[in-house]
């Protein structure tokens, strides 16, 4: 797992390209809600003495660059296989669950799978080995600091996304309560964003779990979201003068202070969308049913518009917008809005590492294009 002498300098120009690409393009995705930027600052330094972490880094960068035609596919697969050859045997050891470098490597491998697997509920879920490691590591969360904790926050965001795509509950349930004490002081944007990410995970857990959603549970989570939204500091409000004002786009102009703020806002909207879609008080019959459904649909459409407005100006954060479109596309019946949503999917496919081609095909069929 470790070598005594750092693998420095790197072997060749290709590895240098991948190493730099990781720092520039990949690490910021994991540091969205980490003001200490562990994946940008710490992971590259640790990787030169931890071969599985280094190979996970290089594989992730190669997969990213391959999406844009800058690196051949076999390059990423080569580094991936080198990583797995060491990592899989290591996972049988109990100490693996407390090795923060291996946890970081697992998070990177899950990122690679997210790039490789089509964005669809029918896609593969081959990250289960990594999930088991994090499930075991939850028992040691009281000792988590630094990179280990940063890896957990990244894993939680990954788990939320995967759970929603597959309409399944979040597996890292114990983490939702244990990780709360590790949220940073309230004056940190990352802290406030992470609070709503926990709320989002709880909403996914409730709505996609195996039990019926009760009114009491639903009200409690909606109250948490409302409290978070109403108490949000000024940094979590749009910098544009009028909230929701539209410019030349089909969506509201939503410019925010930084990536942590945007990540928090998007998870708030995602959580609210999921809760509204599972509102337990919707009438089953009668004249009030259509009105109630129309009100919910109006609210969900408004959420999607806001998320897409955010995505237009935040290239790294278009995945939640794509997910929101996939969840609520059936609620958009006006051709003009459908075309605007489709453009968001196309833009996400062109400019982000995650492919949305499957969603594009699904919504086009749904809309009878």
TrEMBL record:
MF (Gene Ontology): DNA-binding transcription factor activity; transcription cis-regulatory region binding
Pfam families named among the record's database cross-references: Fungal_trans_2
InterPro entries: Fun_TF
UniProt entry keywords in alphabetical sequence: Nucleus
Major location (coarse): nucleus
Highest taxon listed in the record's lineage: Eukaryota
Gene Ontology annotations of biological process type: positive regulation of transcription by RNA polymerase II
Signal peptide positions (record): none
GO CC terms, sorted: nucleus
Subcellular location: Nucleus
The protein's name in its UniProt record: Uncharacterized protein
């Amino acid at each position: 797992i470790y070598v005594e002498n750092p693998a420095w300098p790197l072997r060749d120009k290709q590895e240098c390209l991948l190493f730099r690409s990781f720092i520039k393009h990949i690490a910021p995705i994991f540091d969205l809600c980490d003001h200490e930027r562990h994946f940008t600052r710490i992971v590259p330094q640790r990787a030169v003495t931890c071969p599985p972490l280094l190979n996970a880094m290089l594989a992730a960068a190669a997969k990213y660059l391959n999406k844009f035609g800058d690196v051949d596919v076999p390059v990423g697969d080569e580094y991936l296989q080198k990583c797995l050859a060491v990592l899989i045997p290591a996972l049988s050891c109990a100490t693996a669950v407390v090795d923060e470098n291996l946890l970081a490597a697992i998070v990177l491998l899950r990122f690679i799978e997210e790039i490789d697997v089509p964005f669809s509920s029918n896609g593969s879920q081959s990250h289960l080995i990594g999930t088991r490691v994090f499930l075991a590591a939850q028992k040691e969360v009281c000792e988590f600091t630094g990179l280990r904790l940063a890896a957990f926050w990244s894993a939680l965001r990954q788990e939320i996304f995967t759970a929603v795509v597959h309409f399944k509950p979040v597996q890292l349930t114990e983490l939702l309560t244990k990780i709360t004490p590790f949220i940073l002081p309230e004056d940190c944007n990352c802290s406030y964003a992470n609070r709503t990410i926990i709320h989002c995970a709880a909403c996914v857990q409730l709505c996609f779990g195996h039990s019926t959603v009760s009114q009491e549970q639903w009200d409690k989570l909606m109250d948490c979201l409302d409290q978070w939204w109403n108490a949000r500091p000024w940094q979590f409000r749009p910098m544009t003068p009028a909230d929701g004002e539209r410019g030349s786009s089909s969506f509201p102009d939503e410019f925010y202070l930084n990536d942590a703020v945007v990540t928090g806002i998007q998870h708030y909207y995602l959580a609210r969308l999921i809760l509204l879609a599972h509102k337990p008080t919707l009438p089953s019959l009668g004249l009030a049913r259509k009105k109630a459904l129309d009100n919910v649909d109006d609210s969900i459409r408004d959420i999607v518009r806001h998320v897409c407005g955010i995505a237009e100006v935040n290239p790294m954060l278009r995945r939640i917008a794509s997910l929101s479109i996939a969840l609520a596309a059936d609620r958009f019946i006006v051709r003009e809005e459908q075309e605007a949503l489709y453009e968001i999917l196309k833009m996400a496919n062109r400019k982000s590492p995650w492919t949305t081609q499957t969603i594009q095909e699904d919504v086009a069929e749904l809309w009878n294009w």
